[in-house]
Design goal:
It is built from four helices and two strands, in the order ββαααα. The chain folds into two domains: 15-80, no CATH class; 83-118, no CATH class. The relative contact order is 0.11. Helix content is 46%, strand content 8%. The protein has helices at 42-56, 64-80, 83-104, 109-113; strands at 15-19, 36-40. Mean pLDDT is 77; it is low at 122-129. The chain has 129 residues and is mainly α.
Amino acid sequence: MQEYVDENNSLVYGGQFSPVYGMNHADPLLYTGIENWFTPNILDMRMRMREAFQVHFGNEIKPKKQIEGMQLAGQKIVESYDYNIVGKKLSDLLEKAHESWKKNGRVILDELANKPENAGLSLVKGGAQ
């Protein structure tokens, strides 16, 4: 989420990452202790929710211009994740993966993951056969 959420466009709350545990799944590679899930700080989230509520009803904690700036920044982020834009990024990425497969006999995702034009796309590193 850090690609598109920050203090300039959101009321960000804290928390910590914790290993996944106690999740049974048919695929042994999913929901394992290798993965981490975000556990929100409930008190911090509660403060941010109160802040959003008060701004909505005019009891502003933050200046109105700052809130309007956050709204505009949020709208720009939403527009950058339009279906057409994301579809084009995925299509380009699949083409590059196919080219890598033809060239190397396997898909080497490290090459693709480190390119700025693929920012925001989750890729598994290390290559896939």
